[in-house]
Write a structure and sequence with these properties.
Layout (H helix, E strand, L loop, with lengths): L3 H7 L17 H10 L4 H15 L7 H8 L2
Length: about 70
Amino acid sequence: MSDPLERLLETEMPYGKHKGTPIADLPGNYLNWFAREGFPPGEVGRLLALMHEIDHNGLGHLLAPLRAARRRP
């Protein structure tokens, strides 16, 4: 299994309003909704919870090196 931070960039939201959006790119208010209502089971739920923690604590910069590496040829 790959690094959880890399999985945030690789895994797309499989359903809902933001279907097809990488979990790392989901808006904070959507992540907050899941935090209030409950994260789904499985890997998607774990990744949503991780992204919520990153977003809520202002740690989005942790994903910047991974994003840059993905853009390199």
